[in-house]
């Protein structure tokens, strides 16, 4: 195994991920993502490309739910293992990014139920990078403690994963108006706790 390879086990098998170039991931469109999801059952290259494109967003979603760094890493691995087992996904009509993040959310909810870990360390940081200062992390941690579970998930999906309200509604299986109102309320809470005047 080389330095740019990583083994992940979960579901029904073990997968070897090899880092692909960021240029490949950058030039992919939504339709390409859909096609990659369809082909990742038989193509390790497709799976590796999806992994490199979405690992940070998947980690952010998982971390917003579990609040545990190591459990969230497990969720990342399990999410991509499950993509190799996809049976019902339409490359023509599907929303690839939303689908991957919905799988990640479901995996994280399962893991949280399985381990019954309620951890209050909800620090949003870049997966695998240490570019946040300790003070920023503590500040974010304290702010996000003031949100409900669903509000925190919506904020992470909107701000960190840059999804639309419609995409978030699809992932969370609730009306778009509900997502918008929870997001607005969450932002009001965060602004008030951060001392920002509305």
Describe the structure.
By secondary structure, the protein is mostly helical. It has two domains: 1-119, Orthogonal Bundle (Rna Polymerase Sigma Factor, Chain: A), CATH 1.10.1740.10; 130-198, Winged helix-like DNA-binding domain superfamily/Winged helix DNA-binding domain (Arc Repressor Mutant, subunit A, Orthogonal Bundle). Helix content is 62%, strand content 6%. The chain is built from nine helices and two strands; from the N terminus they run E-E-H-H-H-H-H-H-H-H-H. The protein has helices at 22-26, 30-39, 44-66, 69-83, 96-115, 134-144, 149-160, 165-172, 176-194; strands spanning 5-10, 13-18. It has a two-stranded antiparallel sheet. Helix 4 (69-83) crosses helix 5. The longest helix is centred in the N-terminal third of the chain and has 23 residues, at 44-66. It is globular, with a radius of gyration of 17 Å.
How widely separated are the two ends?
Answer: 53 Å
Rounded radius of gyration (Å): 17 Å
The counted number of beta strands is 2
Q: Given this structure, which CATH class of the largest domain is correct?
A: Mainly Alpha
Helix/strand order: EEHHHHHHHHH
Tell me the structural class. mainly alpha
| Average pLDDT score | 75
Shape designation: globular
By CATH's scheme, which homologous superfamily of the largest domain applies? RNA polymerase sigma factor, region 2, helix turn helix motif
Report the biggest beta sheet as strand number plus sense, adding barrel if it closes: 2 strands, antiparallel
Portion of residues in beta strands equals 5-15%
The CATH architecture designation of the largest domain is Orthogonal Bundle
Tally of helical segments: 9
Indicate how many domains the architecture comprises.
2
Helix content: 55-70%
**Low-confidence sequence ranges:** 1-27, 117-132
């Amino acid at each position: 195994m080389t330095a740019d390879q990583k083994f992940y086990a979960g579901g029904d098998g073990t997968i070897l991920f090899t880092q692909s170039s960021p240029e490949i991931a950058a030039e992919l469109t939504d339709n390409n993502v859909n096609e990659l999801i369809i082909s990742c059952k038989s193509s390790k290259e497709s799976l590796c490309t999806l992994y490199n494109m979405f690992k940070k967003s998947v980690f952010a979603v998982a971390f917003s739910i579990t609040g545990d760094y190591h459990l969230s890493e497990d969720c990342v691995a399990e999410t991509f293992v499950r993509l190799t087992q996809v049976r019902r996904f339409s490359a023509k009509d599907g929303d690839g990014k939303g689908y991957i993040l919905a799988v990640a959310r479901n995996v994280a909810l399962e893991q949280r139920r399985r381990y019954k870990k309620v951890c209050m360390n909800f620090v949003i940081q870049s997966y695998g990078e240490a570019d946040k200062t300790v003070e920023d992390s503590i500040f974010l941690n304290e702010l996000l403690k003031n949100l409900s579970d669903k509000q925190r998930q919506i904020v992470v999906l909107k701000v960190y994963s840059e999804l639309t309200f419609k995409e978030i509604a699809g992932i969370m299986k609730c009306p778009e108006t509900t997502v918008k109102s929870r997001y607005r309320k969450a932002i009001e809470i965060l602004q008030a706790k951060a001392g920002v005047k509305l």
